[in-house]
Amino acid sequence: MAGIYLHIPFCKKLCFYCDFYHVVTHDNNSEFIDALLKEISLKKDYLGEETVSTIYLGGGTPSVFTVKELESILKQIYLNYKVTDDCEITIELNPDDVQPDYLEGLKHLEINRISLGIQSWRDSDLKMLNRRHDSAQAEYALREILKSGFENVTIDLIYGIPGMSLKGWESNLDFSFSFGIKHLSAYHLTFEKGTIFGKMLEQGTISEIDENDSAAQFNLLIQKAESAGFIQYEISNFGKPGYFSIHNSNYWKQVNYLGLGPSAHSFNGYSRQWNIRDLKGYIRAINSGKPYSESEELDTRTKFNEYIMTSLRTMWGIDLGYVEEMFEKEGYDYVMNLSGKFKNYGLMKHEKNSLILTNQGKLISDNIISEFMMPVNE
Ligand SMILES: C[S@@+](CC[C@H](N)C(=O)[O-])C[C@H]1O[C@@H](n2cnc3c(N)ncnc32)[C@H](O)[C@@H]1O
Ligand code: SF4
After folding, report:
1. CB of 20 closer than 6 angstroms to any ligand 2 atom
2. Residues in Cβ contact with 53 at an 8 Å cutoff, skipping those fewer than 6 apart
3. pTM, 2 dp
4. How far is the centre of ligand 1, averaged over its atoms, from the C-alpha of 146 (Å)?
5. pLDDT digits over 188-245, tens only?
6. Is the N or C terminus of the chain more exposed, i.e. has fewer CB atoms within 10 Å?
7. Which-ligand-closest: CA of 194?
C-alpha cells in the first residue's frame, strides 16, 4: 500500500504564518495542470507494483481548482497507478470556496474526506492571521459540508495565537465539537523564518505567547478532545475511532509515498526526493523531462532519527520490536538506555513493547525527541 500527495501551490491571499510553498496568483493555472498531468505519468513506476490506498490533494489551496480540473488530475492517477476501490481521497478546502454545487462535484469524484481550514472561529484571530474568510463563512462551509453527506470531515485549528486567551481557545474548541466532525488537527502557531510573522518576530512587533499559556491551551485541547470522544493519535491530530487520517498515519508508519507538484517530497523506503520549491522552475523541470530537483539516500542513522521523530509523536510510540529488527542491538540499547530518565520523570511510559509519551511528555515532545537524535555525520 502506498500514498500519493499532490501539492496545489495557489493561494488567493497570503496568510501571515504560512511557510507551505504557495504563490498568490492564478496565472499559471493551466500550464501547472499540464505539468502535473505529465508528472503523474512520468513517475508512474516510482511506487513499483504497490497499490495506492490514499490520495491527498493539499496545498496551497486545491479548492482554487474547478471540479473538472480536479477530475482530470484524478483520472490521470487512475490511468497510471493501481488504486484501491476504497481509497481514502482527501481534499483541503478553504471555507470561502465552499458552495453546495462544488461539494456535489467533489462527491461525484468520489472524494471521501474533507479537510476544512478554519483556524479559529474568532474574527479577531482570522484578521490577525490574514485569512480570507470570516467565522460566518467558516460556519456556513462546515454546515454545508456536513449537510451534503460528507462523513469523514476534519477541520484545522490554530492555538497559541497572540491575543487569544484560554477562554477564547475554549470557546473555539467547544464550538468545533458542537458539529458532527470526526477529526480535528490543532496546531500551535509557529513563527517560521521568511513568513510575515517570522519577520515581525525578528523586528519585535509581535511576540510568542507565554510558555505557561501554551501549556494551558495544549492541556485544555487534550481534555476537551477526550471528553468529546476524540483520540489523540498524534500530537496535533485527534480522531473519533475509525476516522484517523490513513494518509498521514502512513507517513508516520514509514509507508512509501509519491509527492507531486512543486516542493512535494517522495519516499520509497531507501531514499527521499523532493521537487523544486518554485512554480516556474517546476513547470520547466517537468517539461524538460527531469522532474526531481534533489534526492537523498537515507543512511541508517537518518532512518533511525526519522523513525523516532515521527513515532514518538503518535499514540503508538516507539515500537521496540521494530527498532530491534531495523536498527539491531545498537539502536535498541540506545533507546532503552535513554528512555530510563524520561520514564523516571513520568514523561514516558513503557507499555507492552512500546515507549510512549505521557501527556506530561507530549508538552515537551520536541525536547525529548531532540535528545533521542543520533549524530549523523560520524
Ligand atoms: C497546508 S496548510 C493549509 C491548508 C489550506 N490551504 C488552508 O489554509 O486551510 C495546513 C494547515 O497547517 C496549519 N499551519 C500552517 N502553518 C502553520 C503555522 N505556522 N503554525 C501553526 N499552524 C500552521 C494550518 O492549520 C493549516 O490549515
Ligand atoms: S494557510 Fe493555506 S491558504 Fe493560507 S497561505 Fe498557507 S496554504 Fe495558503
Report:
1. yes
2. 1, 2, 3, 83, 84, 86, 87, 88, 246, 250
3. 0.97
4. 21
5. 999 999 999 999 999 999 999 999 999 999 999 999 999 999 999 999 999 999 999 9
6. C
7. 1
